[in-house]
């Protein structure tokens, strides 16, 4: 027989594709080849297949992924549509010179962190996938992949094979998705609520002897009614728990829904059995009530989550879908934003929102950037600067040259960052989750032991005691403790214009005893202005000198030159301007009827002509002179942030040492430090000095660094918490943990307070959950807790945790 | 004892993933065009084989247990032991049960030529017979279930338990493609097998405890 047998992955059974036993298993002879099989069953089947000449069965099956369940052709076709390049451009971002693409998928059917784990681990192993981050909170998956190695549809297919529906995330459908999800719970919740009331009424009647003197047949009738009412609760309302339990078992990390499901099905099964045979114990009311209370908890959690998510994505919705584009002939046409490409020119009417990032042409603008920075006051933008999608044009019509649209805009990257923060769990939250997971396993073991021990003591009671243990000690509160608090913290910070890139800072914040601050752009606004002007020459008027300086500095690229370029309305006429890098500029000044050689620049540059010259003001950095005499000196500096002093004072009062770490000269840094009450200053620091200063301080305790996200990159990375003021335009290049979008120094304090408060709540949650779970365990094992009490106790403990976390939303 | 009947059904369900892996695709391959009727007939054939085996074992055990007064209890303990081994087997922790599978090999060798013959004809009765023959495939799962039939006390109960066990395996075998994809990937997962392994082990211990309580030594 000339059939070529396919290869199977090493170490798996040729027939059933499951792992071979440690000793290598057995062998079967098929088509004159020996293949390894795992058991006699497989051996027999394989040989039968051989003898029946059915070997094509092996040839045509998919061996690469035994767990992959094939998709129906029409589903596959739908997914393949997403490989279309034009379509992909609308929701993917490209990085790494266009090789790598990234996008956010929204996943239907994701219920818990086990789902996240499943998807993450399944997709990560696909060749060509860069990284996968699943966010169970937002039900979104962030994926980056190399388009030349794997198609998007293949990734979607892999996720679909696990039983989830993943589609590119569209903010437009989010509201609908949210509503659908809420309705999913509301329906189940409503049914469970109604049923619970009915069953409870009957149960209370039976408990308190209202019908005690009635005959057995009536009691039996009541049981039957309870059964009928409780059945839809079990089959419909409790579905979310079963699904979540299944997923977690599949991921081999059982979550709290496993004991919940076992308890629900067990209690219902045993009660139904008692109803059928007409004697025993019946706990339909516990089943209904437990489902109802658990659903309330889940529903509240869902609402909180949705609030956090929509706060981030509502931003995107503010960007209009249409733009007014200028045609080559100068006419205006209305086009979808997706058709915009860099270099095109769009117009924005007063009151409208900018549809894309771009460069402001022609004239200055007044924009409201509240969406981006949280700052509600309008800001002035001079012509030629970058303006961002999402800002609102306050005054006259604008012309803008597009630089980025859709997913490439700064606003989109802010939203992506918020998503990322929500998906990364801080270590404490991870620890709590792991604890909850190990707790579940221990709980199951303890429940099994309880059952077996009670079987010896009193077989009649064993079942119900075990059930009470399962219900009462279910670590729902523990599992809710961290995620709800973290989501709340991120949401709270976002509404204050603080973007977290790494939620771990919530954890470290309280150990911070030292804060390093950079000067320029951090303590100061980073916008240079003329601070002081001193005219030396008596021969020329101030206006004339200013006009000269402005004319010369117009040829300079130096940041300090910038404020000197706007001194007067009419610059003087200069010719033969030469730039002397590191020193200044020289040229020939035509003033009245003379032609003079002039220089503007550093002190040493001027001293080449006037060696004995000493500045009148120590802080002056820019000097202007003719060959005959010095003309004037200027001090250009940046302004200290208005609230910097008060904020630093407060930090110091909180027992935190504030240290200035700057690359600037000492004579410039020292006055600023004195003004702000900072006693320790490291000036003239090169990047590697900064790095060693910070790491030396880290020997003592964790440190926070507040700096310029772009120039201070390495030292920010070294610090335990790095904070930067997000000049929104630079966001994509910034690497800090925390970005303060509102441009005032007080945001540092606000961030610290919220972070400390969140950590407090997180800790309270975890401690409370642990105390409850560990405390109730021995009582339940001893058989003192009825299923009824257990359900109430467990549900209350999680509702307390939830309510505590919800405080962060206020 | 209806609770034992439930256990048999559960065992079948628990084995679903195993069955799906072993024979899921094959059921289609052997049943030619996997039409719903054909698949159903084929599987009913398989289950009827189980039922027959259950009746035989049940009757044999019932007669043995009359030899000694506690014979029935010892049989229960044996069943519990097998169940325990099956739990270990499902979880992948110990595969000793394969030795028992080996016992069935000679039987299968004898039956296999017949299976080849019946595959040639495509009538529905032939499909039923092919399914019946398939039921004698060496399978640790089936043998553990049979131990359950052994303690059932009579041929009738033995047949009932095995029929229920067969019904338990039916959804997985038969409804390949009917199940939602999520459920399929769940049933095939290692986690599910381990969970079922644990459940069977606990159940086995429980059965053993109940059986021991019936011995004069402990009561």
Structural class determined from secondary elements of chain A: alpha+beta
Count of alpha/pi helices of chain B: 11
Number of domains of chain B: 1
Q: State the share of residues found in helices of chain B, binned by percent.
A: over 70%
Distance between the termini of chain A: 75 Å
Instruction: Calculate the mean pLDDT score of chain B and round it.
Output: 75
Query: What would the average pLDDT of chain A be, to the nearest integer?
Result: 80
The gross shape of chain A turns out to be elongated
What is the overall number of helices of chain A?
A: 26
| Radius of gyration of chain B, taken over Cα atoms and rounded to an integer in Å | 18 Å
User: Poorly predicted ranges of chain B (pLDDT <50, ≥5 residues)?
Assistant: none
Count of distinct strands of chain B: 0
Number of domains of chain A: 6
Task: Kindly state the number of beta strands of chain A.
Answer: 29
Task: Tell me what the structure shows.
The complex is a heterodimer of chains A (810) and B (219). With 810 residues, chain A is of the alpha+beta class. Helix content of chain A is 47%, strand content 19%. Chain A has 26 helices and 29 strands. In chain A, the strands form six sheets. In chain A, strands 17-29-28-27-18-25-26 form a seven-stranded mixed β-sheet, sandwiched between helices. A six-stranded antiparallel β-sheet of chain A has the order 9-8-10-16-11-14, with no helix packed on it. The longest helix of chain A is centred in the first third of the chain and has 37 residues. Chain B has one domain. The mean pLDDT of chain B is 75. The interface between A and B is large, with 45 and 44 residues.
